[in-house]
Fold this sequence. Notes:
Layout: E1 14-19, E2 24-27, E3 30-32, H1 39-50, E4 54-59, E5 72-75, H2 79-89, E6 95-98, E7 105-107, E8 127-129, H3 133-142, E9 151-158, H4 166-177, E10 181-186, E11 197-204, E12 209-216, H5 217-236
Parallel strand pairs: 1-4, 1-6, 4-5, 6-9, 9-10
Antiparallel strand pairs: 2-3, 7-8, 10-11, 11-12
The structure holds cytidine-5'-triphosphate and calcium ion (CA).
Amino acid sequence: xxxxxxPHDMAGVRMLITAGGTREPLDPVRYLGNRSSGKQGYxxxxxxxxxxxxxxxxxxxxxxxxxxxxxxxxxxxxxxELADEVGKRAGDADVVIMAAAVADFRPxxxxxxxxxxxxxxxxxxELDTNPDILRGIVAARDRGELGGTTVIxxxxxxxxxxxxxxxxxxRAKLARKGCDLLVVNAVGDxxxxxxxxxxxxxxxxxxxxxxxxxxxxxxxxxxILDAVGDLLGGSRS
Length: 237
Ligand code: CTP
Ligand code: CA
């Protein structure tokens, strides 16, 4: 798509987007990580910029993606750093999109020097729970701390399991998180992680559920921004 062919409907909108996976260090050479490529978050940042938004992208581990032109990129490594940066910036944003894959847990302690094999075999790794950043910003908005109406978008990567399908898990997560929109991606079997295509659902607290047919992450980005634009329009009029 040519940038000048896109609608310039987000001029003046301040957007905070998180992308990529966090890495939780174990020792100077090792970390706990995940398979997020960052591509969907970068596609959102690019598309939003082309539509006139001013975008800050807080980026964790990505597969060496080029910073989108005109976007301020803030690099982070751990979930704690991500939480700090989001906390500092959410108040200045009209839209917060949490596309980052945040580690749920982090090692309780980080060894100062490389952990050696030793003779006694592996020691168990003790973990602490990371803060839920998305729930944190929803709670801050509910307390009136974000100054004005902020549209908040979450992501969920679901495989479905014995307790329910992808969509069931997505509905439950939307209710639990309290964000306005939840992008539910079907993952597993090579879907989503690191690929250029995505498929899934866009769920809104209004109850609307839109299927997102298999397509590029660029196409998915513009669908998501269309839905964000509708919510912004509603809060502005
Ligand atoms: N998220 C977050 N902080 C965390 C974990 C997740 O802000 N500590 C955000 C993600 O960026 C994403 C959304 O919450 O937008 C859903 O992430 P997900 O991992 O699917 O949700 P969890 O509540 O961690 O549930 P699960 O047990 O399925 O991992
Ligand atoms: Ca999680």
